[in-house]
Amino acid sequence: MPVGALWQALADLVLPASCAGCGRSEQALRHEVCATCARAVEALRASPTRPDPAPDGLPACVALGAYDGALRELILAFKERGRHRLARPLGALLAEAVAATAGPGRPVLLLYVPDTAAAARARQGDHMRQLARAAADRLREAGRQAAVAAPLRALPKADSAHLTSAQRAVAAVGAFVVRRGAVEQARRAAPGSVTVLLDDIVTTGSTLAAASCLLAEARIHVDACVTLAATRRYPAQRAIWP
């Protein structure tokens, strides 16, 4: 392989030339996303969602959009395909949904559903921790007080992608343990804050409900859950794209 072609191949590995949303390579990219896909997700609107039936202990939930189209592809590209530069724009989208949920004025404490150790290794880092930090950064840029805490640790579990609703509910129970030191940190992080639990996708709500109940036992009340996507359709709202 000629030297020039070799360097181009290496550059493609580091900076993919195709859009993470639609896969097309003929357009200029910003944060690995073309203008068309960026506009599609910017048009989304954060809306309340509730699985039916909703599991016991599930707080109020908000999702930015339905788990389809460009949003679905961006989540998968970031989570499973190593497109780590998407953390900033996806975090900004989460920040938009958090701001719409928490309302003006009060500080915001962001918690998140953690990856298992095995998943974090496979993804080269806990993907929700990255998104929570990016969301907090965007909220602070917009003038909001925002902090991130990690009071939960995920225990090893089976892949839930092909589980039924009942199986997901069983798997969610006992999926996490409380990190006691982090609980105290969370309590001190933002007194009087709105506490928001973040995840990428809500399907049955079992994971968010189990995590919220465990946090409640540790005297951390989750005011709302916010996700990028839900497995239903939602009306659209403008999103922040950095």
Summarize this structure briefly.
By secondary structure, the chain is α/β, with parallel strands linked by helices.
Q: Explain this structure to me?
A:
The protein is 41% helix and 18% strand. The model is unreliable at 1-13 and 233-242 (pLDDT under 50). 41% of the residues are buried. A six-stranded mixed β-sheet has the order 3-4-10-9-5-6, with helices on both faces. A two-stranded antiparallel ribbon has the order 1-2. A two-stranded antiparallel ribbon has the order 7-8. The longest helix is centred in the middle third of the chain and has 16 residues, at 87-102. The protein contains nine helices and ten strands. The protein is globular. The chain has 242 residues and is an alpha/beta fold. Strand 9, helix 9 (206-217) and strand 10 form a beta-alpha-beta unit.
Spell out the blueprint of helices and strands.
Elements: H1 3-14, E1 29-30, E2 33-34, H2 35-42, E3 47-49, E4 61-66, H3 69-80, H4 87-102, E5 108-112, H5 117-122, H6 127-141, E6 146-148, E7 152-154, H7 165-172, E8 176-178, H8 180-189, E9 194-202, H9 206-217, E10 224-230
Parallel strand pairs: 4-10, 5-6, 5-9, 9-10
Antiparallel strand pairs: 1-2, 3-4, 7-8
Helix pairs in contact: 4-6, 7-9
